[in-house]
Amino acid sequence: MARDADSALTRRRKIASLVREQSRCTVNDLARQFDVTTATIRTDLAALEAEGKVVRTYGGAVPASGMPREASPELRGYAAEKRRIAHAALPLVGSEETVVLATGTTVLAFARALARSNVHDLRIITPDLNVALALDARDDFTVIVLGGELSHRQQYSYGDQAELMADAFHAQKCFMSTMGVSLEAGLTAPDVRAAQLDRRLLSMAGEHTLLADASKLGVVALERFADLGQMDNVVMDDSVDDQTAGAIGSLGVNLVLAP
């Protein structure tokens, strides 16, 4: 097991170096070069993106260095799918509700959709600075930002202080994204601190909604923070195959496919 972990770390270091040198690498080329499956490469790229070393694009990755930080969320992969997912999730929110918005670019897309929507007088709790700023234009929204140690690359707060602050609040609904979605492994995060934060955010709310594009399917990151069956709703883009959609539905989850 330790040898496998060392091998994955070594491969990821080499992948990050190649992406920097070549400006862009595709999943298929990397899979051939390292003699692994494309699913393994997607997991590697997801982990490297979480570390701020690459930015995923459709079918590959580009270097993260040299990008303006405030622009990077817009330039990450599957932007169109994330916007469609965000729009499809809007009917799950009602005016005058208290909701938790977790972290990540799909949640950010949802926050921007909320800011443009007719939903009014929301109370929103989030640890994500980009999410909070996206909601700032709405004077009728009350936005509470959880404090704590700042994750500089991902721009969200985490740690004991963030979790203690989260314990003080109760919400009706929580909307969250994830690095990986697997029927067997559940929802997974890239590191222990992210998983701990996600668990705490889920515990704040009675209804849970996962927002995830189909590229996350089959990806298994370091630590599980929830089972897929714990979600009340899963909103994904419509490229999900029928077999997977049926398996998700069999868990008693309301699956919404964004057209």
From TrEMBL:
Keywords: Repressor, Transcription, Transcription regulation. One of its GO terms (molecular function) is DNA-binding transcription factor activity. InterPro entries: Carb_Metab_HTH_regulators (IPR050313), DeoR-like_C (IPR014036), DeoR_HTH (IPR001034), NagB/RpiA_transferase-like (IPR037171), WH-like_DNA-bd_sf (IPR036388), WH_DNA-bd_sf (IPR036390). The keyword Repressor applies. Pfam families: DeoRC, HTH_DeoR. Residues 8-63 form the HTH deoR-type domain. SMART domains: DeoRC, HTH_DEOR. PROSITE patterns: HTH_DEOR_2 (PS51000). Repressor of the lactose catabolism operon. Galactose-6-phosphate is the inducer. This is Lactose phosphotransferase system repressor.
